[in-house]
C-alpha cells in the first residue's frame, strides 16, 4: 500500500510539474520534443478533413509516396528520389509565413553544413512562383526549392500535414521512409540534433 501511495504521489507531482511548466512557459518547450510533436501531429490529424479519394498520404515509418514537383527553373524535383540514397529533409513554407521566414537562415546553415554527402535539404513553397522568386532575391538559399499550389492535394498533405500548418518539415530516411515530422519552426542549432536519421 505504501509503494502505491508513493507512486501515485510521484505521478501527481510529475503531472503538476508539466502543467506548471506549460502555464509558465507555454507549450513551446513541449512542442520541441519528439513526444510533443507526435502528440500535436495526432491531434491535428484527428481534426483534419479526410484526404481526397485516392491520395496517398505519408505515414511515419512507411515509404513516402513519390512526388514530382517543378523546381524554380521548371526542372522536376523528385521526392524522395532527389537525395539519391541519402536522408532528405523537406521543409514546406510560404513567403507570407513569418515563422517560415525566421527559420530560413537555420535551414540554409544546416544545408551548407551537410554538404553533398550529408542530409539533403529541399524546400517546397506552397506559394505563387513570382512571390517565391522575389522573396529569394532578398533571402537566398542554396538548396533546391520546388513550387506547389496549396490545397487538399498539395505536397504538405501528401507528406502527412493534413491541416496545412506552416512551416512543416519531414525527415525521410535513405530508404525513402518517413522518419520524423515537425510542425513549427526550428530555432538556431536545433535542426542538427533533430535531423539525425
Can you tell me about this structure?
With 197 residues, the protein is α/β, with parallel strands linked by helices. Strand 1 (67-70) and strand 2 form a beta hairpin. The protein has helices at residues 2-25, 28-31, 34-46, 98-114, 129-138, 155-158, 190-194; strands spanning 67-70, 76-79, 88-93, 120-126, 145-148, 168-172, 178-183. It is 39% helix and 18% strand. Strands 5-4-3-6-7 form a 5-stranded mixed sheet. The termini are far apart.
| Alpha-carbon Rg, integer | 19 Å
Oligomer: single chain
* Strand order in the sheet with the most strands: 5-4-3-6-7
The rounded distance between the terminal residues' Cα atoms is: 44 Å
Q: Strand count, sense and closure of the main sheet?
A: 5 strands, mixed
What is the count of DSSP helices, taking H or I runs of 4+ residues?
Answer: 7
* Strands, total number: 7
Principal-axes geometry comes out as globular
Average pLDDT confidence is: 84
Order of helices and strands: HHHEEEHEHEHEEH
Structural category: alpha/beta
Strand content: 15-25%
Unreliable spans are 12-27
> How much helicity do the residues have?
25-40%
Amino acid at each position: 500500500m505504501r509503494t502505491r501511495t508513493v507512486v501515485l504521489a510521484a505521478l501527481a507531482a510529475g503531472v503538476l510539474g508539466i502543467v506548471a511548466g506549460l502555464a509558465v512557459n507555454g507549450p513551446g518547450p513541449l512542442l520541441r520534443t519528439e513526444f510533443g510533436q507526435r502528440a500535436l501531429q495526432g491531434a491535428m490529424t484527428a481534426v483534419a478533413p479526410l484526404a481526397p479519394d485516392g491520395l496517398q498520404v505519408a505515414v511515419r515509418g512507411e515509404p513516402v509516396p513519390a512526388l514530382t514537383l517543378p523546381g524554380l527553373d521548371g526542372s522536376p524535383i523528385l521526392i524522395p528520389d532527389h537525395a539519391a540514397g541519402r536522408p532528405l529533409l523537406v521543409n514546406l513554407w510560404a513567403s507570407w509565413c513569418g515563422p517560415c521566414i525566421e527559420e530560413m537562415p537555420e535551414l540554409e546553415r544546416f544545408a551548407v553544413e551537410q554538404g553533398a554527402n550529408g542530409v539533403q535539404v529541399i524546400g517546397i513553397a506552397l506559394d505563387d512562383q513570382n512571390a517565391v522568386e522575389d522573396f529569394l532575391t532578398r533571402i537566398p538559399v542554396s538548396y533546391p526549392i520546388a513550387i506547389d499550389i496549396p490545397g487538399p492535394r498539395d505536397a504538405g498533405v501528401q507528406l502527412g500535414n493534413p491541416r496545412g500548418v506552416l512551416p512543416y518539415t519531414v525527415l525521410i530516411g535513405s530508404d525513402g521512409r518517413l522518419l520524423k515530422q515537425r510542425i513549427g519552426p526550428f530555432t538556431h542549432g536545433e535542426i542538427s540534433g533533430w535531423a539525425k536519421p
